[in-house]
Design goal:
- The protein is of the alpha/beta class and 480 residues long.
- The protein contains 15 helices and eight strands.
- Strands 3, 4, 5, 6, 7 and 8 form a six-stranded mixed beta sheet that branches. A two-stranded antiparallel ribbon has the order 1-2.
- Helix 3 packs antiparallel against helix 14, helix 7 runs antiparallel to helix 8 and helix 7 packs antiparallel against helix 10.
- The chain is globular, with a radius of gyration of 31 Å.
- The chain starts with a helix and ends with a helix.
Amino acid sequence: MRQLTKALYGSKSEKSKYQVPDGQGSLFEDDPSFNDSEQTEEQSTETVSYTVVRKVSKKKRNDSFSNNIEIEEIHHHPANTLCDCCLHQMTEVGTTIAREEAKFIPATMKRVQHIEHAYECTVCKKDTTQKAQIKRGKAPQTAIQRSIAGPTVLAKLIYDKFIQYLPLYRQVKEWERYGLLTNDKNLSNWVIRAAEDWLQPIYDLMKQVLTAKSVLHVDETYAQIINRSDGKSGQSNAYNWVCRSVPSQGPIIVLFKSALSRSRAVLEDLIAGFKGTVICDGYSAYGHLPDVQFANCWAHTRRYWLKADSKNGRIGVDYCDRLYQIERKIKHLSPEERQQIRQEKSKPIVDEFFAWIDRSPFFGKNALAKAAEYTLSRAEGLKAFLDDGHLEIDNNLAENAIRPNVIGRKNWLFSVSEAGAKANAICLSLAETVKANGIDFYQYLVKLLTELPTLPIHQQSDLLHNYMPWSENIQATCAK
């Protein structure tokens, strides 16, 4: 009952401060004055006078303008600049900015017509022995053939869905307000076509670069696909998997993959060709892959001990907190320095933690026994971070990377087809990778959808390296 009450009404935070047994936090535990004993009349009192010098801090506005925004000035002059006394013309002596306000100019829709002009040589035309000489201007290739969707429309469509989490059916009215009459089925087809034809080559190259690294974070979350090829109901869970690289191994790459199941076969396909260490949670699919080692997550372990709301549970959490205190101090150091400090300071704590669990009689099916069983069964994976400074202590990077997918799922709810789910994974991969590398996603999409259709990327795949989010070309043109 106590655990249920705490789950319903208690704090959801995983911070170290414990709640009282009924799940309700104390109103006074933050104030040290309530921890002092009460003064009675029998006790002597002493009056202490002191002076407090407070630094006056200027209040910071919570709204402001960016530095590169255009400034429009509106000057206000008196209606009459003649002196009321002598009727002579007055001279300006100064100005004051009375206020600043934001002005919004709505986007405009244009109907762009690409007109090809043809030219012929009239001299050769008169000469019957010569062939007619005709030249025609060639309009650039469009992203989607026989479609009125230009690169900027496609870019905004994808940006609004995967950055603003605005479902396609809710975008229809907005497009109509701008003057583009369409429906959500058309918008869905545009996203799928753009993703398959022009974004997937970038996605495939990102995957190739990602699997060449030696450390990956992996996680998965459920999704919903209505029309499934495996014959299962549309209400059955599908899954979105995510891989993320670590900051110590070059530019950050976040890769999503849509799948109908949570099986190990999906993981094998996702990280095919990878040789190194995967940081993951305790799910059974993570294991027994050739050339792959698995490191487990201390955050998941800590949650098990946190649920065991008891004296021993608090001891388990305290061991985890001591490890995290060390990690916070060394997170900015090099991998070599992190490994050395972990061997000196973290390893004794880990060894003491597992020795304490071995000595403790935790039996049964209660939360404390589950925490002990979870920790002991993953001892090797939990100790992996001690021997490699590139490894993180937990899988929070992957959990944070998968959060946009969860937020999106709460808005667009489901994918009608597997093709739509795959397009979502491709677009999310580019969106999160671009954000991690400091690139404006909208400008990046406009550049891709404008330039890639005019290039022979399928014959010369090396051209794609110039369009990766961390390339000099993209950093110079699309940086925020």
